[in-house]
Amino acid sequence: MKLFFFVFIKYLLPFISFIGVLHSESLEKWTPAVPYGKVVELAKDGSPYFQGLLGIYLRSGESGCSVNIDLSRQWSEVSFKNAHPFGSYNLANIAMLEGDFAKATQYYQDAALLLQRKASDGDSIAMYCMGEIDFQVIPTNIPRALDWFKKSSGLGYPQAQATLGALYLKGLPGLLPRNTKLGISLLSEAVRAKSLTARFNLGMAYLSGDGVPKDSKKAVQWLRVAEGQNFAEAQYTLGVLLIEGKEGLAKSTIEGLAFLQKAANKGHQLAARYLEKRQGISSNGSMPLVVASSNSENDEDRLEEAKKSYTGVGLKKDYSKAFALFYPMAKGGNAEAARFVGLMKFSGKGTSKNMKEARQWLSVAAQKGDSTAIELLAKYKTLFQ
C-alpha cells in the first residue's frame, strides 16, 4: 500500500504541476471570457501582461472602466519595467495624448518587435497594438494596419471592433470600402462589451447620421454614457451641445459649463479655450491674462477662417495667420486642423519646414480617421522615411 502511494504521488505531482503551468499560461493571454475584475486581479498578482493591459484599459476606458490617465501611466510603467511591450505601447499612446511625439516614437520602437511576435502568435490585443502602430507611426502601412484590426476584431477584441466599425462608417478611398451596415454591427458588438470607444463613436454616428438615421436623443444618450466614464472628448462635445442648444437640445448653460470644466481639467485644449471665450476663466478657474471678447467666434468659425486664410478663398491668403489658427485646434484634438498643421510643416508655409513634425501631425489626423491624412501618409511614404 505504501509503495502504491509513493508511486501515485511520484507520478501525480508532476502532472498536477503541469496542469498548474498550463492554467497559468492560459491566463497570460486575454480572451473575451476574461472580465475586467480578473484583469485587475492578475495585474495586482504581478503579471506584466495584465499590468500592461490594465494600463490600456484605464487609458481607453475599455470594459466599462473609467478613464484614469495617471493610474494608466502607473500600471504601464510597471509593465514596462517588467519588459512587457504592452507597457511601452501604452506609454507611447499617453505621450501622444500629451503631444510628446519624440517620446512616443521611442516607446513605439521599444514595443514593436515584441508586439509583432505576440501578434504573430495569435494574441488579439497585440494584433490591435500593431495595427495602431502601422496606422500612425511613420512609415505607415495602412493596408497592414487594417489587416491587423480585422484579425483582432475577428478574435473578439472590442477596441478593434470599435476602431474598425468607425472606419467602415466613413470608408478609406482605395483601402477600405464604406460599409455602414458592417460598421454599425461592429460598433454594436463592441458596445455590448462596454467599450468606451464604441459608445462614443456610436453617439457621434447618431449625431451626424453616419450609418444610422440621425437621432439627437440617442446621440446624447451614448455621449452621456461615455462622459460617465470620464472621457474628455464626450464631456467637451456634450458641453458645447448643451450651452448652444444644438441638435434640438434644450439649452443648459450650467450643466454645459460643468462638462467643459471637466474636460479642460484633463487638458482638453478646445474645452479650455471655449471656457476662456465664454467666461473669461482659464481651465484651472483663474483669470487669464487676456480675456476673449464675448462675441469671439466659435471653433467651427475659427476653423473656417483658418481654411480661408490658407486657401485665399473668401479671405486674403495668409499662411502665418492660418497656422496660428490651426495649431491650437490641432493640439486640442481637431483632426482636420492636425492635417493642415502637418501639411504646413511639410511645405514650410506659414511655419518652419519640419518633415518629422509633418509626419507626426498627419499621423495624429490619420489616427482620428482623417482619410486625406491617411492618403497623404501613404502617397509620400518614402519622403518621411
Features:
Serine Threonine Protein Phosphatase 5, Tetratricopeptide repeat; mainly alpha
Task: Please provide a written account of the structure.
With 385 residues, this protein is mainly alpha-helical. Among the domains are: 96 residues; 61 residues, no CATH class; 89 residues, Alpha Horseshoe (Serine Threonine Protein Phosphatase 5, Tetratricopeptide repeat). It has 21 helices and no strands. α4 runs antiparallel to α5, α9 packs antiparallel against α10 and α14 packs across α15.
**Helical fraction:** over 70%
**What is Rg?**
23 Å
Helix run count: 21
Distance between the termini: 73 Å
Apparent shape: globular
Derived structural class: mainly alpha
Mean of the pLDDT scores?
82
Summarize the structure.
By secondary structure, the chain is an all-alpha fold. The protein has 21 helices and no strands.
Write the layout of secondary structure elements.
Blueprint: H1 2-26, H2 36-44, H3 48-60, H4 69-81, H5 85-97, H6 101-120, H7 124-136, H8 142-154, H9 158-170, H10 180-192, H11 196-208, H12 216-228, H13 232-244, H14 253-265, H15 269-279, H16 299-311, H17 319-331, H18 335-347, H19 355-367, H20 371-379, H21 381-384
Helix pairs in contact: 2-3, 3-4, 3-5, 4-5, 5-6, 6-7, 7-8, 8-9, 9-10, 9-11, 10-11, 11-12, 12-13, 13-14, 14-15, 16-17, 17-18, 18-19, 19-20
